[in-house]
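Before any further analysis, we paired sequence with structure tokens, yielding the entry below:
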Amino acid sequence: MTTSRPHDSPPIVRPTPWRVHRDGTHPVVANISDEPLEFARAIIRVGDRVTTERWGIVLPGDENEVCLCGLDTSDLCVTLSFRRAGVDEELLWQFVL
């Protein structure tokens, strides 16, 4: 199911459920929200190369370490894809080092 909003309405703003502790090539991503996040994954893009780490359900307070060893961090972007529990809307959030 796809939801849409009228073109003249303001965008929906939600606080990010993630906090990133940048620790060299091993950033740690934590769910700082009060709800579980479903179908969570980290999509790592370096240049034209894309890899995915599938996390599944991330409970409040859970942390996941993303290994970026051997990657060119100057041309890197990590996209976190997730759904709020019980909601069929994919949300994306990105960070760089």
Observations:
- The chain has one domain: 18-95.
